[in-house]
Specification:
The protein is mostly helical. It has 19 helices and no strands.
């Protein structure tokens, strides 16, 4: 029964994608980040749902271009060049890979990230679409945290919370970082909400998201939450209210969570006595030494089983930075780092520009995207999440926000342009949103 319901939902997404291709992008976000077919009980667990919706969205877009007799509108951004360099370097490091077959298999898997990003870049071309995409991404993960947050409260925060089965963040550690990344996106929605009931619903989702991430028992997730919370306070218009709230929340944590949870989180400060921390330091040392042996191209995808074998056991890199360094060399790490650090800096410049009255709509979006990317980089310190789709989607959203701020600044702020009546009208009547 569950599989049939999921299949009907997929068919609905496909129809929408053929009718309005940009709605297909929202559907791809749902399938990619909520991963609902992972909860299937039969044929939907292996059904290529994402590929089917991608094909429908691409077909709808191609037919729309043909009907309008217009070529796709191409826009330039320096991050497009960085993405091309990064994925191009993946080919180079794969050519020199230590485990060629495993590296090629991983390369094919990583390359699948690119086509949906192209659709996002081409089809999300208005402020309304960008807002709805960010809300869709946030809801796709937040709806999972409802279950996780509820379970955390009911079990007294004694059990771990996991992500969608079969997704990139199905594990508790990865899921906590993904939740930390989407909390700022919920704040974008909260900022634009005008309905009191909806406001409190979103606020409840944010609280459950915090509880769900904390109840994952992930130290990397805790780092992400702390880094993200600092940015939330920094970008808040009411810092004098936000700071006491976060301090109060931090004081309540020791009263709510168990001694085992506190001991696990506290082990980050006493890593000399923690076996898990020591094993991570060991694999980082192995990755660093391996990178020094081949500093330009690294050892290719999935080199860690061979490189860590000398330690007597197979260990994952447990750090996206070491992962990039060992597998793609210093060149790959620099390209990857410039892409993320440059995007965060560009968002900072955009926030400054948004002080102008006609660009104030982009300020909250830029600030919260910055917080989300900082959460990812903080979590990447202790988790091997270098090839995630979610941060690249957010980078494309940052590029779109910058593009719209330059070419489509509009008048007034985003608040008025995103009120429900205006949004619904724009989705059905304006030519731009039919792309």
């Amino acid at each position: 029964m569950r599989d049939h319901a999921l299949f009907v939902i997929l068919l609905g997404f496909i129809v929408l994608a053929l009718y309005r291709p940009w709605l297909g992008v929202l559907g791809l976000a749902v399938l990619g980040f909520m991963h609902p077919h992972g909860y299937g009980e039969g044929f939907m667990r292996t059904f290529p749902a994402f590929q089917a919706l991608f094909a429908a969205t691409t077909t709808g877009y191609a037919f729309e271009r043909f009907r309008l007799r217009r070529w796709p509108e191409l826009h330039w951004d320096w991050r497009l060049m960085m993405l091309a360099l990064l994925f191009g370097w993946y080919f180079v490091s794969t050519y020199f890979a230590l485990a060629p077959i495993a590296a090629r298999e991983k390369l094919v898997e990583v390359l699948k990230i690119l086509p949906p990003l192209v659709l996002v870049w081409l089809l999300i071309d208005t402020r309304e679409k960008l807002f709805l995409l960010l809300v869709t991404i946030a809801l796709s993960i937040a709806l999972v945290t409802i279950k996780g947050g509820y379970w955390a409260v009911m079990t007294g925060f004694g059990d771990r919370v996991y992500g969608p089965p079969g997704s990139q963040f199905g594990d508790n550690n990865e899921f906590s970082v993904a939740v930390a990344m989407t909390i700022p996106l919920l704040f974008i929605w909260l900022h634009e909400s005008r309905d009191k009931l909806l406001y409190w619903v979103i606020l409840g989702l944010i609280v459950l998201s915090f509880l769900s991430a904390l109840s994952s028992w992930s130290r990397g997730g805790l780092l992400s939450l702390i880094a993200m919370s600092v940015l939330l306070v920094w970008h808040s218009r009411r810092k004098m209210l936000a700071i006491p709230i976060f301090i109060l929340a931090a004081l309540l944590v020791p009263m709510v969570f168990s001694e085992q949870w506190l001991a696990r989180m506290g082990s980050m400060l006493a890593f000399q006595d923690d076996g898990s921390a020591q094993s991570r330091l060991e694999i980082w040392r192995i990755g660093w030494e391996a990178a020094l042996k081949d500093p330009l191209t690294g050892h290719g995808f999935n080199a860690w089983p061979i490189l860590s074998e000398s330690n007597g056991r197979f260990l994952d890199w447990h750090s996206a930075y070491i992962e990039m360094l060992a597998e793609h060399g210093f060149v790959g790490l620099v390209i990857w780092g410039v892409l993320f650090a440059g995007t965060i800096l560009s968002l900072g410049f955009l926030i400054r520009r948004c002080r102008q009255p006609n660009l104030i709509w982009a300020g909250p979006i830029a600030g919260m995207l910055q917080a989300a990317l900082v959460a990812y980089l903080a979590g990447a310190l202790t988790l091997g999440i270098a090839y995630w789709e979610l941060p690249l989607w957010l980078i494309i959203c940052a590029m779109i926000a910058g593009r719209l701020a330059v070419s489509e600044p509009g008048v007034g702020d985003l608040d008025s342009s995103l009120r429900p009546v205006r949004v619904s009208a724009s989705l059905t009547n304006t030519p731009d949103t039919q792309r």
